[in-house]
Amino acid sequence: MQNEQRPAAEDPANRSHEARAEFVEALGFLVESIRWMPRMNGRVLGCLLVADGPLTQAELRDQLDASLGAVSTATRALLEKRFALRVGLSGSRQTGLVIHPDAWRNMEEDGIAGVQEYSTLALTTLEALGDEESPAATHLRQMNDYFVEVERRMRAILVWFDEQKQTTR
User: What is the pTM of this model?
Assistant: First the structure.
């Protein structure tokens, strides 16, 4: 009986690589389709999420088959939004990128800041109108009420996030 070799698709390492690559592409399309961020930002984020360690910009470029400029622009945006963190690479003067340990908390905090801006705009305009009984005032009160409730729920998510972080230590 000859040694039978499994097809490459059945190889666990190959399956893992394919699953990671499919995730990276799917996340890129998802974040673009919901207008959250450009596709390349989502692809870089995806790479960092499924990486087993820090990735340099050159490694990201190679994995994504993208230009260094596109990768650089995407990583700069992810660093600014506190989704990624720059780390030193052991034995090298290079730096790599990893997912920020508080990436999802940071996203929620940024969301809260945006929600507060909507609420403030509604209240400021409501005050400037001065007509408490107009349809415009009713709409602005509803807008404010909505964003106050959204903020309350987002803050509850932060509490949950912090509790989860404490239990996983």
Answer: 0.82
